Amino acid sequence: MIDITEFKKKFRRSKEWKEKREKLIKERGEKCEWCESKDYLTPAHQDFHEKYEDKESGLTFSFVVTDSHLKTNYYKIFQSYLQQILIKKLPKEYFKKFMVCPNCDASGSYVRFRTTKTPPIRCYKCYSEFDSLDETITNQLEKEVWKKLYEDEEIKKILQPVEERVKKLFIEWYENFDICLLLCRKCHFAQSKGMSLCKKCKKNYHRSSFEFCYECNPKKDLIEVKKKIRKINEEIEYLEEGDFDICCNACGVEFCGEDDWEEDEFGGLAYCSKCKNLSNKEELAEKREREADEKLQDSLEQRKELINNLPIELKNRMGFNKEVCFG
């Protein structure tokens, strides 16, 4: 059997690999294709995804290589063989079964058994009642059956040659330097972690699924503004709801289970044990209410100013009109 790890170690130490590397460096201009550095340069294989059709076995599955690692192993091949060929030949007894409502096919928490009422079973999806459930067969194999098939020697005899052919394809791909990138050590490490160098600043790395790094991302300003607006909205929501039902109206201390709080005319908590005996407690409560209203107005103005100063493009993305007025 072919050992991919052992092959890679031997190949990277071989004279053939060194010659191919030197040839690639001369062809690509002796500099990193991403950052143009001339530090230690090395061939970097690009990720490879392709559907592979094995003519001898009739199987079709994904041939996946990421960071020079073969991800199409025996398990993946077995799963494809099971779903495409074997599952059609297996008897029904091998598959998982579960009980469903005879009216709407609901299962799980929707179907409940009752001990005191009749009929004993009720479906809480369609609200029908019945004496027995219907049995349905799934397309999932029982755990013991799956394990038995996975370890079956006859199936291994069929699939191991397929695995060997896939490994040979990987070796052919790994020995082909025409599809490689020439990268420095830093960029090669980033590429192995699924990162790419930003095409705009040529400094920062980003996930391959993105076009730019965070600093060069045109949506960066939009993200920052959204964070600020979200924070202001939370503050506005808190100020609009008020805390007079859980805090002392005079000093603002939060109620924490004391029994000697004074209640207001509606039966809610009003003043703590320290403030309830003060002569000017009502004035303090009014002052605190005014301060809360002022804070609310300031937050509303701050949000209005923040949104009105946005460029029209960002306003349209966020769903705001040219002039935004709150409060």
Written overview of the protein:
With 327 residues, the chain is an alpha+beta fold. The protein has a domain at 220-318. The protein has nine helices and 14 strands. It has helices at 4-12, 15-28, 74-84, 143-150, 153-175, 185-192, 220-241, 281-308, 312-318; strands at 41-45, 48-54, 59-66, 69-70, 95-100, 111-113, 121-123, 129-130, 134-141, 180-184, 195-197, 205-207, 262-263, 269-271. The strands form six sheets. The chain has a three-stranded antiparallel sheet. A hairpin with a 2-residue loop joins β3 (59-66) and β4 (69-70). α3 crosses α5 (153-175) and α7 (220-241) runs antiparallel to α8 (281-308). It starts with a helix and ends in a 9-residue tail after the last helix. Mean pLDDT is 83; it is low at 322-327.
Describe the structure using short key phrases:
327 residues, alpha+beta, three-stranded antiparallel β-sheet, 9 helices, 14 strands, disordered C terminus
